[in-house]
Amino acid sequence: MPSVTLVDHALVQHKLTLLRDRTCSTANFRQLVKELALLLGYEVTRDLKLTTARIETPLETMDSPKLDGKKLVFASILRAGEGLLAGLLELVPSARVAHIGLYRDHDTLRAVQYFFKAPEDLADRQVIVVDPMLATGNSVCHAIDILKKAGAKDIRFLCLLAAPEGIAHLHAEHPDVPLVTAAIDRQLNENGYIVPGLGDAGGRMFGTT
Ligand code: URA
User: Could you tell me the CATH number of the domain that includes residue 134?
Assistant: First the structure.
C-alpha cells in the first residue's frame, strides 16, 4: 500500500484556511500556494537519500550529509501545478522540470493529454508530481501513466487538497506512488469539485473563470 502523509503543521493549516476563503485575492492566492509549496516541499523531500561529503569547517574536517546522486524532477500538471512548482523551485533550484498538459473533459471528467515534455533520463531521477487538487484522480493517474511510459520509476505526488475518491483511485492504479497532502476533504460534488475545497485552483491562481 502507498503511504499518505497528511501535513498537519500549524503554518500549513493556517495558510490553507486563508487560501480556501473565497475572499482571498488572486495575488494572495498565488503567494499562499507558493508558501505552501515551500512548506510541503520540506515534507515531500524529507527522506531523500543522503550520502556524506568530506568538508573542512573553519575548525576541522568532517563527513557531512548531502543529497545522494539521484536528481529531482518536479512534474507539473498544467496549469494549476505551476503555482506549486514556483515554490518548489525556490527550495531546489537545480531540479529539472517536466510539464504535463492535461485538460479535464467536462462531460466524462476524464483527463486528456495535450502536452508532454520531460528530461530524458527520467529512470535515474526522483520524480515529484505536483497538482494542487487530487479530485477524481483521473489527471494524476494519467500523468503518472505518461511518466512511467517515459521511464520514470520512482514517483511521489504532492497536492494541497485530496478527496477520498481521488486517494482510492491513486492507490488502485499506482500503489507504488506515495502521496503528500495538506488536507483530506469530505468528498467530491456532482461536478467533480472537492468539497468543502477551495474552488477552481487554476482559475483562482491565474484570475480566470
Ligand atoms: N480541480 C480544482 O481546481 N478544484 C476542484 O475542486 C477539483 C478539481
Answer: 3.40.50.2020
Q: Maximum Cα–Cα distance for the chain, whole Å?
A: 66
Q: 37 is written with which cell numbers?
A: 509549496
Residue of 136, 193, 195, 206 to test ligand 1 pocket, by largest number of atoms within 8 Å of CB: 193
Say how far apart CA 84 and CA 192 lie, in whole Å: 21
Does pLDDT of 209 surpass 80? no
Among protein residues, the one with the nearest Cα to ligand 1's atom 7 is 193
The structural domain count of the chain equals: 1
pLDDT at 105: 80
- Could you read off the pLDDT of 156-202 as tens digits, one per residue? 999 999 999 999 999 999 999 999 999 999 999 999 999 999 999 99
Question: Per the domain annotation, does 26 fall within a domain?
Answer: yes
